[in-house]
Specification:
Blueprint (H helix, E strand, L loop, with lengths): L3 H17 L4 H36 L2
Helix pairs in contact: 1-2
């Protein structure tokens, strides 16, 4: 899978295409499916990073 920044960039590109209306029905379907996967990936990365940061912070306070 992509890294977080690459996934976010691709989501931004999809959003821009949606805003411009640069779509036929098949491309729209494909982009919506891709966006769903990218959003899930980004959420998981953010959650994992938050947990790692919290672990580091809690180690320092012990």
């Amino acid at each position: 899978m992509k890294n977080y920044n690459e996934a976010l960039q691709e989501l931004e590109e999809i959003a821009q295409r949606m805003e411009r209306g640069d779509y036929d029905i098949e491309t729209m379907k494909s982009d919506v499916e891709t966006a769903k996967k990218l959003i899930k990936f980004c959420r998981q990365r953010l959650t994992k990073t938050e947990e790692e940061i919290n672990a580091i912070v809690s180690e320092d306070s012990d």
